[in-house]
Amino acid sequence: MKKILIVPSFLMALAAPAFSEPLFNGKDLTGWAPKGADVWTFEKDVLTGKSNSKKQGSVLWSEAKFKDFTLDLDFRFSGDVDSGVFLRTENDQIQIGTSRSLKRDMTGSPYIGTIGKYPVEAHDVKSLLKEGEWNHFSITAKGGHYVVLLNGKQVLDYTSDTAAKEGPIGLQVHPGVDMMIEFKNVDLVKG
In its keyword annotation, does this UniProt entry include Signal (predicted)? Predict the structure, then answer.
């Protein structure tokens, strides 16, 4: 005689794996809006931010807002670049590339606008970051607690006192820099 196990639906929901959702539709910038210069293009599954001749800055913001999430994305750059990922607000950012103020690479480090500095520095980035090649970021934001993995290795565990509870995600082209950065496979898991 076979035994049948009946599992309540609420327990099934708890056991269900979290699914990521792409934040770009694969064709264009639908669902995103630039604040600043129009320097963003989407072609062949790659989002490119390239400074214009005036070196004006721009942040490409998602129209959707998020609370707790894990954001996975691939990025590529070469040379001098100052970019980053804004987490729910323009105040809290995870840096990609060279800090204008510190004049050195601060990839993976949080820049907090209200204090005007990097309160901590990501570790092991120099050995992990592959300039000119695709790199993978996994950024988990649970409230103000940020954990960042670069190419599969944790480089940051930081808690921000200034984190917004909910907001969009932004991708940056810094003003005053002649730069280009590319993003692809931009996916998000809520919760």
Answer: yes
3-state secondary structure 70-115: EEEEEEEECCCCEEEEEECCCCEEEEEEEECCCCEECCCCEEECCC
Residue 18 pLDDT: 66
20-190: in CATH 2.60.120.560: yes
DSSP letters spanning 115-143? TTB-SS--SSHHHH--TTS-EEEEEEEET
Strand-pairing partners, residue 77, are 181
- pTM here? 0.89
Cβ-contact 179, 79 below 8 angstroms: yes
For residue 180, list its beta bridge partners: 50
Beta bridge pairs of residue 170: 61, 86
pLDDT of residue 26: 85
Q: How many whole angstroms from its chain centre is CA 153?
A: 16
Q: Where are the domains of the chain?
A: 20-190
Distance CA 89, CA 138 (A): 18
**Helix, strand or coil, per DSSP, at residue 9:** helix
**169: how many CB neighbours lie within 10 A of its CB?**
24
pLDDT < 70: residue spans in the chain: 1-18
